[in-house]
Every structure is written in C-alpha cells, then in structure tokens.
Amino acid sequence: MSFYTDNLVGASVTPPIALPQLVPSRICLQCDVCCRFPDPDSALRPYFTENEITRALAGGVEGTVFPNRRGSQVILVPELHGDGYLCPAFNAATSTCRIYEQRPLDCQLYPLALMWGESHDQILLGWDTKCPFMREEIPGEIQRHADRVMALLDQPGIHDQVVAHPRLIGRFQEDVVVLAPLPRLTEAVAGQWGPAPLHRLTLDDIPRMTTALDRSGWSRAQSLAAYSPVYHYMWNGLLAYWWMEIRGIFCLFAQSLDGWFMPLPPIGVGSIDAPMSDAMGLLRRWNGDSPVSRVENVPAQLVPELERLGYRLTPKEPDYLYRAMDLAALAGDRYKSQRALCNRFEREQSFEVAPYQAGDRQDCRALLRDWSRQKQAEGLEAFGAMLLADAAPAHEVIWSQASALRVTGRVVRTHGRICAYTFGYWLTSATFCVLLEVTDRTLSGLAQYLFRETCRTAVAEGAEYINTMDDAGLPGLCASKQAYHPAMLISNFVASPVRES
Ligand code: SF4
Fold this sequence. Notes:
Layout: E1 4-6, E2 11-13, H1 25-30, E3 36-37, E4 47-49, H2 50-58, E5 71-73, E6 77-78, E7 85-86, E8 90-91, E9 96-97, H3 105-109, E10 112-116, E11 123-128, H4 132-136, H5 139-153, H6 156-164, E12 176-181, H7 183-193, E13 199-200, H8 206-216, H9 229-233, E14 240-246, E15 249-255, E16 260-261, H10 273-287, E17 295-298, H11 303-308, E18 311-323, H12 324-329, H13 336-348, E19 351-355, H14 361-377, H15 382-401, E20 408-414, E21 417-426, E22 431-439, H16 446-460, E23 465-467, H17 475-482, E24 488-497
Helix pairs in contact: 6-7, 13-16, 14-15
Bound molecules: iron/sulfur cluster (SF4).
C-alpha cells in the first residue's frame, strides 16, 4: 500500500478509496439534497473513518467537528441563513464539497446506500430515491453501477473498513430501493460485532427505550435522572450510542474516545445476571482488556446483586433531589440569599417569560456563545472547560428536537432579547429534572429567578421533586446545588468487572 505524507497534519495518510460515480457533478451542483440536514442529530450525517478524518483535516476541515478521531459522524454546523444544518466540509457559497476528492466512503457510495434489512438480519445495497437524479436514471444503468460497487465492496480494503465501522451501514429505509443482499459482509459484521443486531440509537428508538424503562420499574420518582432517554440522547452528536436486545432486555451502549461502555445497566424485567454477563462479554470483545468496559449509572438497589455477581462497584457523583415545594417557595432563612436575588431581578429588570419555540433557536445560540465567553472569562478548571466545549452540540439537539424528546423549555427576554433559557423533562409524574439552564451572567438574580420559575411551573403541574442531576465533581457547582438544601442525594455507582491479576 502506498502512503503520502501530509504537511498540514504531519501524518501518514492512506490514499482515499475511489468508487465510481454515477451522478454527474453538474447534476450534483444543481441539487440541494446532499450535505444539508434538517437537524443536528440527523442519522444520515456523514461518517468518517480514522484515515478519512486525517484526510479531511489535511483538506482544512476543523478538528472540532470530529468527536472521535478514530471514526465518527461529523458534528453538523448551523446554516448561517436558515434553520437547517450543514456538513462542515460543505461550502454553502459554491454548493460544493471542500474535500470532494478526499470525501469519505460514506459520501462516495451515495446515492447507493448500505443498509440493514427490515428485520436487521442482512446487509443490503440499495439506491436512495431521495436523489433526484436516480429517479431519472435507467434501472439497467443503476444495476450495472451497483455491480461495479459491489465488486469493490468485496475488496479487502473496503470490506474491512465497513466491518470495522458498522456505522457505515444505515438502518432500513423504506425509500431506499433494494438492489442486492450482501451475505459476505453480513457474515463478517456479525463475526465482529455479535450475532444480535446492534442498532444506532436514533430518535425513532426513543419510544422503545421509554417502554423498556417503564417496564423495568427503574425509572421512579427518586431514581437517577439518567433513567430517561433524553439524558443520553442529547449527547448523540458527541458519543455514538447504540442499543441491542439481549435475551429480550434492552441494552444501551456508548462508544467514547476510550472505547465502549454501557451508560445504563440492562433495562428489563427480572434478573440482570445473564444479559449483564452477555453484554460484558461483548464489551470485552470490542474493547479487549481495556478497563473502559463498565456500566454507568448503577442505582444503589442494584449494588448487592452486582457485587454478588462479582462486579466492583465504585461510587460517583450523586444526583441532587429537592422537594419541589421548597424550591418554588424559597421560604425561610435558609433560602434568604436566593430569595433576595430573585427579588432584585424582578425589581430591576423589565422582562417576560415564555415557552421555548423552535424559532428561538438562533437567539439561544447567541446566548450560549455569550454565556460560554462569560464562564471562560471567570476562569474555569480544566474539566469544566471541557464540559463547556462539549455543550454546544448537545444544546443544538435539545433546541432542535425538544418536542420529539418531550423536553419543555422556557426563555426569558429583556428588551426583546433572550437572556436566559432552561429545559427539563419529567422523569416520572412526580419528578421534574432540570436538564439545561443558561443565563446572561451579567444580570444579577436572573439564574435564581429562572430556577424558581421552573420549579413553580413544575409544582403547578404536579411535581413533588426536582432533580438537578449531579455536580460533575465541580466544586462551584456542588456549592450552588448544596445551597438549595437537597432533600436527598441519589447514590450513583459504576460497575466494572473485577480484573484478574
Ligand atoms: S464530506 Fe463533502 S460530500 Fe460528504 S456530506 Fe460533507 S460536503 Fe457533502
């Protein structure tokens, strides 16, 4: 294999795979389907392998759009004018790809597509009817093109790339016309990733995960905030989330920079012994001996069973749970300072509070940018700075998918400008979780006012508890959460297999 060295990144880069193209570029230039996406979490945003990322960096694409340099879907960027999102390699002014010659296999394949069959038992090659050109093309020509591509997909370089990066295989889409099954690829993928289907977590899977959580009984008034799909889904741009049904039990997996882990224990009814053991077996297969194989957000109730099964349990930061009435009233001496700040904001500012609407997204984005600058200017510890850097893609998902994720949001405006926003969700009918809160830090009392309003609204809608999640180990966040006098700290553990010496 030949290599060339790229001066910009100083790394050895394998030359790109070149698949034949069916659609003439003059047609592509006139079309507005590819490279643009309605939402930041679009399942169809392009996937880059490690080599493809290296080449994209050399082509001038920003490194920050690749959450995992070993292979990831890109983080889409908001359109300057409009409500949609663009691939960061797309030049909107010329409607061209800035790295066309180096674009990833995922893009080269299009308008052909690799996808799972409807029952997820075989990989298929199909063509996407969303491509306007394909609707005009002669079926015989499409088939001849597909035959050429299939022959290339059988070559070890491409075949191994697809097997190593299962995200390159999309889920079944009704508007993709099936051309042929790919049995050799199906067999190789099952050999690598396990016989049970491994699915990317998409918005369509939220009801399935919600049903599994409801049936499991793990999602209760005093449960960790993590026992809700939105808690995980909002990070879908940064981490790759996957799910698999093992022995009829829903198992959630996440692929991080370090490797694979389970963000939740297996979610189902009955003993988790067998599914947990199977899931750990898969993590070992995918991670090797790495200590990254673990289960996060283990509640205290599961600790005895997991210890009996031989796992090591390590405590991590607990969730803060408050009585909702306490926070809505802020009565008595213990809430004196918060009350004074709320009063000050009400006295000094002319403002209005309104439910979040999709059209507020641009203003929220501007506020998040200001807020991040304010936080950075105050000086942040390294971990806090890292959390801040990761915030934008997660907030984009919430702004875009609030109603699909059943997240409620409110904004505060002063002088017609959004100066604060907050989002939260109902863990159960008794517990409201505060997911995000961003406020202009130059407006004294605004944060306290907005939090009290959130709690008052939740109480009016039946909340007994408010869960504000954990403090991420940040001392400042811990102090401000403690200052509201939690009724309970909900224990949280990480379970890891005991390593043999
Ligand atoms: S890499 Fe290029 S071809 Fe692929 S989605 Fe981005 S802009 Fe479009």
